[in-house]
Every structure is written in structure tokens, then in C-alpha cells.
Specification:
single chain; 909 residues; mainly alpha; Serine Threonine Protein Phosphatase 5, Tetratricopeptide repeat; PEP-CTERM_TPR_PrsT; TPR_rpt; TPR-like_helical_dom_sf; TPR repeat
Length: 909
């Protein structure tokens, strides 16, 4: 109320009678006495406006701004006061401290190089203290304390800072206990004490000190950063977040603030947000080692193994061997398949024997999965030697021995359970081993033992065992018992749902389904299973309404959106699917990416499909399905380089995935990287992969090397084992190379007839027929496309070209005009229409279309040849000759046309 009254009085008086600067200064001092410093600053600013050269007004304004933490403004006013001859003994210390608290320590030192002569011992001591502190904070090594210039209190501050800098916080704290004059540099003392307490891990007292410092200067953001760090250390995450938010409001791109925010999320197990903000911190050069550790650990926790590897490698290059970075880095390398790398460096890591045993046993498991049994046994032996009683290592040993030594496997698993009976996987594997060794009764005995510890788990295992023994009725009885113990057991509900559906008990299946979906509204697989049950009941027409209701009931769940999108795709409505899924921002379920990408593919928008699948692999890099779809879409677009690059990226996450190795071999052959293809094939042969898969890739390799007879043999074997359009296409090319294109066309036509709705198959077949001289067959295939899609641009344009080759100019012109109406700016439409026109005698107009096409695609050899022919027909022989001289045809058809045009030109000369 006082402040409002004072301000109102000021305004009223100003409106009536202008006050002098002296009166305004007096009013300001009265406001300061009343505790209204902000109002006093306003009054002093008015005084400066009234009399700009009033040194007292400038000084008092600068002094108050300093006390409010407005150091840049304070520096400006104090400098003006000094310029106006205000006493340096009063103003100069404030100037130096205002620069110091802007953290501009070099400028403090520069300013003090020409400091004025001051006789006052206290002021001299203050200036000497801030000169020393500026040297210390600007990075000068071991600056000397100017003890002769410092009074007792300032000397203690300097000595405490020096001792702290030398790594002796306990001694530094003892020095601070000798402070006797609270009025001398109270803020600096609090910062000092906070730093000492933080280095002693006394987070509570550090927090108190930094809070008290901020009470004096709330705008000193260094103190706020220090406070936030201590609050995080003390796990007061909510309070820390409040402080960090204040810092981010000032600078959203602050590297250190984003790092601290990432730590808050990290300790809250919100790894997605922690990773995002640690990235922002790294982009702004904040704590590269620690931010990389947070980012790497968060990436690992969210399944981004390759990203985790990159970040953790950065962190490990700086952080000491005892830091957990190194252990996590070893784990990530193992999961990525870099077993040898980890094993070779394991002795250098600060890892306990138990952890080492677990790492070696994991390495053994991975070697087994690669078929390298000798290496697996070697690592298993190391695991035993490090810790023979590690339960996790024993569990893995049991799994490794299951196939070759049932008795030893049982012993290892039983020993693991004796040590840690809570190893659920060990119970399941032991029951499996007993089932293989002695049959169902022996396995059920293991389930009974587990049931003594956990009745629910025992019943559940019995259900699994009966399912394996194909006794579904008994299995259902035990899963029902699980649900009596735990009505919300989702695994048991799922088994009951699927089991009843398999027996055509759809009503019962749907009862379990509704209970399951109520517990897992965002589980896409469960929802897809329910959709399939409804389809099995003949309720497909009701699915759209059913899923729409679920979307409304669970607005934050993306699974119902994905499922409905799949229904739209099933009904050949890709636009509806796309429209639905585009409403989902930042999908957290792979299904959205899958359905959206598939919709784009169905619509023929492969560029958008690629972007969607890329988003999928970025978001869920350990989901193989996203990688496979992205690779296959690149292949579909004949972008083998993109497919190859993506395959290699995927292999960093799945180094032992045989399908990816096979793809690499296949794509390497497709892009002429024969040595790489052969290396991949050798890996597959070592792993004992199926001959049929290798036959396909070997056939592709032979085709690319133009070993056509070998290619025909290999691809025929592949086709007979696994017929399909992709292999029939390669086989057709091999047969064409072996001078038997007609047989190749037959394979393609067979596959087209198997999938009559697939437009792409028809296009490929038509182009093959056209390229190999089967023009009528090509026309027939294009006509089939146009029957289904009368306005298909590519089919119209291509059929016009084939009709032109056959001399069917009327049909060619009609098709070319129809194609041109679909895409009047397309170079292909312009070229086709122009070429038909010159063939029908309309050379001038035809030439203009072709030249326009050439302007859009200057390097297209077919358009160049058509342009040369137009020039010849138009009598422009010189230009035609020059153009033909610049054309270097590559395909047989281009070479034939080039030769014919040269001959035609010679005949006219």
C-alpha cells in the first residue's frame, strides 16, 4: 500500500508541478528508507530524465540497480556518474563488482589495469579481492593472493577460495568459520559456502547457502544453476525443475539448463525426454561427457542401441574407468554383437566378478546364436571361472546346453534356481528341459515346485505345458485358475481369448477380449487379434463402428487408430487411412507408422512411405519390421543404393540377422558390389543358411555378372522353391540374356495371372515385353491396366509408344493426347506426343513438343534421339548431325535407332 501511495503521489505531483532532480532524488531516498527500492529506481530514472548530467542521480540509480541485480544497467549508470566526476571511492567498487557479476572476468582485469588512485583501505581491499577472484575464475593458474592489500575479512574469502581450488573443501570450510563481519561481501560468502558444501556432498547445507544467496541477488543465474544441481543431487526433483524452468524461460537454448533438465527426466525414468534434452545440451556444447552419458543411457533404455553406442563412446573417452559409462558401453556393444571388442577390454573395466560372469555368459549365448559353439564354450568357461555361482550366468548356461546336453542343462538351471528361486525364465526352461527329457509329467512336477513359491506362476506354467502337449482343454483350465488368483493377468486373458477363438467359441473369446482390451487399450497386437475374431464371426462390416467407438473412448491410445487404418487399407481406402493417422501427433506405437506407410505404398506415394518408415526406424530402431519395410520400399522404387544403405544401418542393430545379411548380399549384387555380395554369401554359408535363399542371391550375382546360363539355373531353382513375381522378374532377365526372352515372358505372365489386381506386375511385364520385341503382348498388358485404371498416365504414355513402334499412329495419337491431358508438363508426355506427331507428318508441332521435353530432361538419350529425328524430318540437317554426334547410346534399342538416324542423314546428303 505504501508503494502505491508513493507512486500515485509522484504521478499527481508530476501532473501538477514539475519537480526538480533534487526533489526526485530526495523522494527516491525516502522510498528506499521505506523498503520500496523498485519505486525508488523509477523515481531516480525520472530524475535522470529531468537532469541527465546529475551525477548524484546517476550514482544512486546505479547503486540501487546493482542491489537489485541489474548489473548491466548498473555499470552503465555508474560509468556516467564517474564521467560526471562522482567520487571514485564510492562509485568505482560498484563498477568493478557490476562487471564481475556479469561473469566478465577478463573485463574486470582490463578495467583494473587503469584503476584510479584510491586511499581508502577498505575500498582498496575490495578491489584487490575482486581482482584476485577474477584471475581465479578466468582460469589463471595459481594466482597469488595480494595479502598486503586485503583486510582480514577479504583475505579470509580469498584464502578459502584458494584452498577450495586446490581441492581441500574441509580446510576451506574451516577458514569460513573465521568470518566475523557479516556486512562484508555476504553474497560472495554464501556462494563460497554453497560450493564447499556441494564438494563435501552436503547437499542440504549447499541448498540453504545457494537459496540465501539468491535471496540477495535473484538474478545471479550462476547461483540458480548451482542450486538446481544440488537439488538434483539431493533428488528434490520437483524443486530442481522449478529452478531450471526459470533458467529456460530466460534462454530456452541454454546448454547447461537443458542438461540439468535432462537429468531431472533421467532420474524420473522419463528416458525419451531425457534423451531429447541431452541432445539439445550437446548441440549447445554443455558438459559433453556427462550429457553424452545421459543421452547414451537414455538411448539404451529406449531401445536405440546404435545411438547409445555413439553417445557412450563419446562419454567413455573422457570419464574415468570407474564410471558406469564403461560398463553400460560394454553391455551395449554385446547387444549389438561386438562380442570380441567387449571381451578384449573386459579386464580393463572396473567390473565385479558377478557382472563379468553375466557379460561373458551373454557373449557365450550370442556366439551360440551365430552357430560358433567352440567360441560359446570358451566364453562360458570364462563366466564359470569368474563366478561359478552367478544365477543369471547359470541360467544362460542352461539355455546353451539345452540342445546338446539335457542332463547338464537341468543341473545348471536347478543350481540357478537354488541360488535365486525368483528367476522365472529358469523355471520355464527347466520345465522345457524336463519335458524333452522325460515328458509332460516330469515337466508338470517342475510347475508344481514353482507353484509352491508362486501359485499363479505354477498354474500359468502348467497352462503353457499343456498347450505344448496340444491339450487345449487342460491348458484353459489352468489359465482360468490363474485368472481366479489374478483377474487382471493379461497373459492368461490373451491365452483364453485365442484358445476359445481357435475352438470357434467366439462369444467366450470376445468376453475375454473385452477384459483384455480394458486393461491394454493401447496394445495393437491384442486389438488386431480381436479384429480377427470379429472377422471370424462374420462381423467385418461392424469393425469401423467398433473401432471408432474405441478411438472416442480412449483418445490418447493410438492402437485403435492403427487398427482402423488397417481396416481402411483392407477395404482399399488408403486416403481414409492416411487422413485418420495424420491426426496422431508423435506416435508412440509402431502401428501408426506401419499403417501410414502401408497406406502411402498402396496409394503409390512411395516418397511419403519412405519418410514414414524412416520415422518408424528412428523412433523404434530395434523393431525389425520398420527396417524391412523401408528396405523393401527402396527396392520397389529400384533405389538399390538407398536399400543398401538402410540394410547396413539395420545390421548395426541386428548384426546376426540372416535376413539382413541375405539382403546385403542381394543388394550388393544388384549394385555391382560383387566382392561385398560374395562376402555376405560366405557368412550365410558358414551359418548353414538354406540353399534356396542363397540360390536366389547367387543367381542375382550371376545375372549382374552376365553369366546368364548360371543365372538361369540358379534362379530357376529359387523360383521352383519359392515362386513369386520378384524372382520371376530376375529369371526373365536372365533368360533374355540367354537369348530366350519368350520363356522369360511366360514366367512373368504366369505371376501376373496369379495376382490380377497388381498393377505393378503388369507394368513390369509390359515393359519387358516391349524391350524384347513382343509389342502386341505389351499392348495387351497395358490394355489390362487401362481397363482397371482408364486414366493411368504411365500406361497411356507407354502404350502410345508401343503403338508408334507398330505404326498404329491413330491409336498412338489418341493415347498420347490422353496421357498429355493428365500431365501436360511432363517431359515424357511431351516427348511421346511430339514423336507421334512427327510420325504422322505434323513435324513442326511435333518438334516443338519434343524440344520442350528436351529442355526439361536434357540428358535423356531417348528424347535426344527423337529430337534428332525431328530435326532431320524438318530439314535441319546441320543441327541433327551435331546432336547425333553428342549422343552416346547405351541400350540396344538406342544403339539401333542412333545407327538408323545416322544412315538416314547420310542418305539425304
Amino acid at each position: 500500500m505504501k508503494r502505491l501511495s508513493a507512486l500515485w503521489l509522484t504521478v499527481a505531483l508530476t501532473a501538477c508541478t514539475p519537480k526538480s532532480a533534487e526533489e526526485q532524488i530526495a523522494n527516491a531516498m525516502q522510498l528506499v528508507a521505506e523498503g520500496e527500492k523498485v519505486a525508488a529506481i523509477v523515481e531516480l530514472k525520472n530524475a535522470v530524465i529531468t537532469e541527465p548530467n546529475n551525477a548524484e542521480a546517476r550514482f544512486q540509480l546505479g547503486r540501487l540497480e546493482f542491489e537489485q541485480g541489474l548489473w548491466e544497467e548498473s555499470e552503465k549508470e555508474i560509468r556516467r556518474a564517474l564521467d560526471l566526476s562522482y567520487p571514485v571511492v564510492d562509485a568505482y567498487p560498484i563498477l568493478i563488482r557490476s562487471i564481475f557479476y556479469q561473469n566478465d572476468f577478463d573485463r574486470v582485469l582490463m578495467e583494473l589495469e587503469s584503476k584510479p588512485e584510491i586511499q581508502d583501505a577498505q575500498v582498496t581491499s575490495t578491489l584487490a579481492l575482486f581482482e584476485y577472484l577474477s584471475k581465479l575464475k578466468s582460469g589463471e593458474q595459481d594466482p597469488v593472493i595480494p595479502a598486503e592489500s586485503l583486510k582480514q575479512e577479504e583475505l579470509l574469502i580469498a584464502q578459502s577460495y584458494q584452498t577450495l581450488e586446490q581441492g581441500n573443501p574441509a580446510v576451506a570450510l574451516n577458514i569460513t568459520q573465521k568470518f566475523t563481519t557479516p556486512s562484508i561481501e555476504p553474497f560472495e560468502k554464501l556462494i563460497l559456502k554453497g560450493m564447499i558444501h556441494s564438494l563435501q556432498y552436503d547437499h542440504v547445507n549447499a541448498i540453504i547457502a545457494f537459496n540465501e544467496a539468491l535471496d540477495i541477488y535473484p538474478s545471479y543465474h550462476v547461483a540458480r544453476f548451482l542450486l538446481a544441481e544440488q537439488l538434483i543431487e539431493d533428488k528434490q526433483l520437483t524443486r530442481a525443475d522449478e529452478q531450471i524452468e526459470r533458467l529456460l524461460q530466460l534462454n530456452p537454448n541454454s546448454g547447461h539448463a537443458n542438461y540439468l533438465k535432462s537429468l531431472v527426466y533421467f532420474y524420473q525414468d522419463n528416458y525419451e525426454q531425457a534423451l531429447q534434452l541431452a541432445n539439445v545440451a550437446l548441440q549447445n556444447d554443455a558438459k559433453p561427457a556427462l550429457a553424452s552419458f545421459v543421452a547414451g543411457t537414455s538411448a539404451y533404455r529406449t531401445g536405440r542401441l546404435e545411438s547409445a553406442l555413439r553417445y557412450l563412446n563419446t562419454a567413455a573417452s573422457t570419464l574415468p574407468p570407474s564410471h558406469p559409462t564403461h560398463r553400460l558401453l560394454a553391455q551395449v556393444k554385446l547387444e549389438l554383437g561386438y562380442v570380441e571388442d567387449v571381451a578384449s577390454s573386459l579386464d580393463g573395466l572396473s567390473i565385479e566378478p558377478g557382472q563379468g560372469a553375466e557379460i561373458y555368459s551373454l557373449a557365450a549365448l550370442q556366439k551360440l546364436q551365430k552357430g560358433q559353439r567352440a567360441e560359446s564354450e570358451r566364453y562360458l568357461s570364462k563366466a564359470r571361472s569368474l563366478d561359478p555361482n552367478n544365477p543369471v550366468s547359470l541360467l544362460r548356461e542352461g539355455f546353451i546346453l539345452l540342445d546338446d546336453n539335457q542332463a547338464s542343462a537341468v543341473d545348471s538351471l536347478a543350481k540357478a534356481l537354488d541360488i535365486d528361486p525368483n528367476l522365472s525364465e529358469a523355471w520355464v526352461l527347466l520345465a522345457q528341459a524336463k519335458y524333452e527329457e522325460s515328458g509332460l509329467a516330469s515337466a508338470l512336477a517342475i510347475a508344481d515346485q514353482w507353484g509352491e513359491l508362486s501359485p499363479i506362476n505354477g498354474e500359468f506354467l502348467k497352462g503353457i505345458l499343456y498347450l505344448r502337449d496340444e491339450q487345449e482343454t487342460e491348458a484353459s483350465r489352468h489359465f482360468s485358475q490363474v485368472l481366479k488368483y489374478d483377474p487382471e493377468n493379461t497373459a492368461a486373458l490373451r491365452y483364453m481369448m485365442i484358445g476359445n477363438a481357435r475352438q470357434d467359441k467366439f462369444k467366450e473369446a470376445m468376453e475375454y477380449a473385452e477384459r483384455l482390451l480394458a486393461l491394454t487399450p493401447n496394445d495393437l497386437q491384442n486389438l488386431i487379434d480381436v479384429v480377427n475374431i470379429k472377422i471370424g464371426q462374420g462381423q467385418e462390416s461392424e469393425l469401423e463402428e467398433y473401432l471408432t467407438k474405441r478411438i472416442k473412448a480412449y483418445p490418447d491410445a493410438t492402437a485403435p487408430v492403427s487398427a482402423l487404418a488397417f481396416i481402411y487399407l483392407r477395404a482399399d481406402k488408403p486416403d481414409k487411412a492416411i487422413s485418420l493417422m495424420k491426426k496422431v501427433e508423435d506416435p508412440q506405437n509402431f502401428g501408426i507408422y506401419q499403417a501410414l506407410g502401408d497406406a502411402y505404398v498402396e496409394k503409390g506415394d512411395f516418397g511419403q512411405a519412405i519418410e514414414t518408415y524412416k520415422d518408424w526406424t528412428d523412433k523404434f530402431p530395434t523393431d525389425r519390421r520398420g527396417w524391412y519395410r523401408l528396405i523393401s520400399t527402396y527396392q520397389f522404387m529400384n533405389n538399390f543404393d538407398g536399400a543398401m544403405e538402410t540394410t547396413q544401418q539395420a545390421r548395426t542393430y541386428f548384426p546376426n540377422d540372416k535376413r539382413l545379411v541375405l539382403l546385403e548380399a542381394h543388394l550388393a549384387a544388384s549394385t555391382g558390389r560383387f566382392a561385398q555380395s560374395k562376402r555376405a554369401i560366405s557368412i550365410l554359408e558358414e551359418d548353414g543358411s538354406e540353399l534356396a535363399a542363397l540360390a536366389h542371391t547367387r543367381g542375382l550375382l550371376a545375372l549382374n555378372e552376365k553369366r546368364y546360363p548360371d543365372a538361369v539355373k540358379l534362379l530357376t531353382a529359387s523360383y521352383e522353391n519359392n515362386p513369386g513375381f520378384a524372382v520371376s522378374r530376375l529369371l526373365a532377365f536372365a533368360l533374355a540374356g540367354a537369348k530366350d526372352p519368350k520363356t522369360g515372358l511366360g514366367y512373368l505372365q504366369t505371376e501376373v495371372d496369379k495376382a490380377p489386381d497388381n498393377t505393378l506386375y503388369k507394368f513390369v511385364t509390359a515393359e519387358y515385353a516391349s524391350a524384347n520385341g513382343f509389342l502386341n503382348e505389351a499392348i495387351s498388358m497395358y490394355e489390362r491396366i487401362l481397363t482397371e485404371k482408364p486414366n493411368d498416365f504411365a500406361a497411356l504414355n507407354n502404350i502410345a509408344g508401343v503403338h508408334t513402334q507398330l505404326g498404329n499412329y491413330d491409336k498412338a495419337l489418341a493415347a498420347a493426347k490422353a496421357a498429355f491431358s493428365q500431365a501436360p508438363e511432363s517431359e515424357f508426355a511431351l516427348d511421346t506426343l511430339g514423336y507421334v506427331l512427327i510420325k504422322t507428318g505434323d513435324v513442326k508441332q511435333g518438334r516443338s513438343y519434343i524440344e520442350k521435353a528436351l529442355g526439361k530432361a536434357a540428358n535423356n538419350k531417348e528424347i535426344q534421339l527423337h529430337a534428332a529425328e525431328a530435326l532431320i524430318l524438318d530439314g535441319d540437317k546441320v543441327r541433327a548431325k551435331n546432336m547425333l554426334g553428342r549422343i552416346y547410346p547405351t541400350t540396344p534399342a538406342q544403339k539401333s535407332m542412333h545407327k538408323a538416324l545416322l544412315k538416314q542423314l547420310e542418305e539425304q546428303e
